[in-house]
Amino acid sequence: MRYMLLIYANEASIPASPDTVKTVSPAYVAYTHAMQEAGILLGGQRLQPTANATTVRSRSGKTEVLEGPYAETREQLAGYYMIEAPDLDAAISWAARCPGAENGTIEVRPLWEMQAS
Amino acid sequence: MADTVAIARAAAEAAARQSYGKLVAFLAAHTRDVAGAEDALADAFAAALERWPAEGVPARPEAWLLTVARRRSVDQMRRRQNGVAAEDHLRLMAAEIEAKAASEELPDERLRLMFACAHPAIDAGMRAPLMLQTILGLDAATIASAFLVPPATMGQRLVRAKSRIRQAGIPFRVPEREELDGRLDAVLEAIYAAYAEGWIDPNGSESRRRGLADEATWLGRLVVSLMPQEPEALGLLALMLFADSRRQARRSACGDFVALAEQDMALWDTAMIAEAETLLGKAAGMGKVGRYQLEAAIQSAHAARLELGATDWTAIASLYAALGALTRSPVVAVNHAVAAALAGRADEARRLLDGVADDQRLAEYQPYWAARAEVLERLGDRTAAAIACHRAIGLEPDPAVRRFLQAKLTALTDPG
After folding, report:
1. How far is B276 from B110, CA to CA, in rounded Å?
2. Alpha-carbon gap, residue B328 to B321, rounded angstroms
3. Residue B393 parent element (H or E)
4. Of B71, B146, B294, B404, whose CB count within 10 A is highest?
């Protein structure tokens, strides 16, 4: 099954100086490497902070564009991994190893497996 | 005569449950689709519950259920929304297990199903209901009445939980050694939750609160038979049997609550006590103490009144001390205090109660206030004891227990 590991973090606790944002922390490098070696990693990215987010919706034919994230919460979506795992237990054990689990929260969500009809 | 019929019925129902649970577990473990497996077997199980008590249990119960399931499948598929899933399951059964069910024992996957039901990704409150339904085939209405939830709500929650098992990919697996203790604890906790819901009403006099104690004990036996080397599983079964052995003694003839130490021992089921003692002894020999073994040991100390003639409160107090050190539970502290008071150490009992007095959860916990009343009375503070007793009465939902406390309050406030 495919699972998304959605990494939620408190943005205030992430130093966002130009130097730190462009380099990946050693812990994440090791984690990503381990996933690749295990052959389960399908993809993953780090997101820019919600200060750079734009929210868009269409209401009665009108497009509304708002500055900021969908919801102002203490922890925000900061990045994700998509993995292939045999079952939820395997997905949970990868989520538990994620460096972001230490101070933030990882949400594990299975994907709908779409079939072309 | 009526007894013989009742025994035959109980035996047939137990056999139907065995076979039904095994078939559901087998199918679900292969497909992760619990609802589909239940659907495929629902009518056959109903027919078994109806016919086996009268006709006797067939020689190969699983094969019998399978044949009926297949025969009825056409009707079933016309009627049921889940027809496709049921058809898939019946095909799987035909391909994989018909030969096995006819000739040899079906592989027992019920343990794996139990671990799926008690998975950490399943809401803790739904683990016991899920097990009762999938392993034992109890309907949502019966489970709902035991857990005091509207039947439709319980039905929805069960459907959602089963869908979650399938969609989230919850595995049907006995966990590896390093995580087994924690996961087994969740299974045992769910069984104990079903048990505790059951024995609140020992007479079954309130029909809407049909006891699930028998069903929980059955599940406890199943876990012990599948994991005989797990001391906590043995401990839980012993605990349930000890408590069950006093079912008849817990209420007086007119339905009044009778405290354990006051119970008429002639009403205790000594065969059940002996079985519990054997289980507990076996568990103790494995050298790994745990919560359920300690709780069973406390029950065993109560049962020892049969030989000693009096309750050894000192022994019980020290077992509660060990249990408290393990669980850090304020409820255990309250029981520890009562035992200490009855062992003649009211000062220590008061210190124990004061130690947990700040815990917000105890503000609405009746036994805490009843214990306070008991301890304060022993310390000679009848006024404060009466206040605590009054508080306990206000918190108790069971009229029989309320009457018991009321009598105590009257004695406390009686100037003579």
Report:
1. 24
2. 10
3. helix B382-395
4. B146
Three-state DSSP class for B365?
Answer: coil
Handedness of CA B180, B182, B183, B185 (dihedral sign): positive
Interface of A with B in 36-95 (CB under 8 A): 85-89, 91-92
Domains observed in chain A: 2-110 (3.30.70.1060)
What's the token pair of residue B352?
Answer: 């124990």
- For residue B379, give both structure tokens: 């310390």
Token pair of B12, please? 């047939």
Q: How far is A5 from chain B (nearest CA, A)?
A: 13
Among chain B, residues having any CB pair with chain A shorter than 8 Å are: 119, 121, 167-171, 173, 175
Per-residue pLDDT of chain B (416 residues; tens, 9 = 90+): 567 788 888 888 888 888 899 999 988 888 888 998 898 888 889 999 999 998 989 988 888 888 888 776 555 555 555 556 666 766 766 666 665 655 667 788 999 999 999 999 999 999 999 999 999 999 999 888 878 788 999 999 999 999 999 999 999 999 988 889 899 999 999 999 888 765 444 444 443 344 688 889 999 999 999 999 999 999 999 999 999 999 888 888 887 778 888 899 999 999 999 999 999 999 999 999 999 999 999 999 999 999 999 999 999 999 999 999 999 989 899 999 999 999 999 999 999 999 999 988 888 888 899 999 999 999 999 999 999 999 999 988 778 888 889 999 999 988 76
* Cα angle: B358, vertex B363, B364; to 5 degrees: 155
- ipTM value, please give it: 0.73
Alpha carbon B274 to its chain centroid, in Å, reads 20
CA distance A90 to A97: 11
Residue type, B122: I
Which among A3, A85, A87 is the nearest to B170, CB-wise?
A87
Residue type, A92: I
Residues in chain B: 416
Per-position DSSP letters for chain A, written without gaps between them? -EEEEEEEEEGGGS---HHHHHS--HHHHHHHHHHHHHT-EEEEEEPPPGGG-EEEEEETTEEEEEES-SS--SEEEEEEEEEE-SSHHHHHHHHHHSGGGTTSEEEEEEPP-----
Q: Which residue of B has its CA nearest to A113?
A: B167
Q: Is A5 on the interface with B (CB under 8 A)?
A: no
Contact A88 B171 (CB under 8 A): yes
Cα–Cα distance list, B365 to B336, B354, B357, B359, B396 (Å) = 15, 15, 11, 10, 9
Do B215 and B413 form a contact (C-beta atoms < 8 A)?
A: no
**Letter string b/e over residues B242-264, b meaning 16 or more CB atoms within 10 A of that residue's CB:** bbbbbbebbbeeeeebbeeeebe
Q: Which residue of B has its CA nearest to A86?
A: B169
pTM of the prediction?
0.81
Coil, strand or helix at B251: strand
Question: Do residue A110 and residue B168 have CB atoms under 8 angstroms apart?
Answer: yes
Rg of chain A over CA atoms, in angstroms?
16
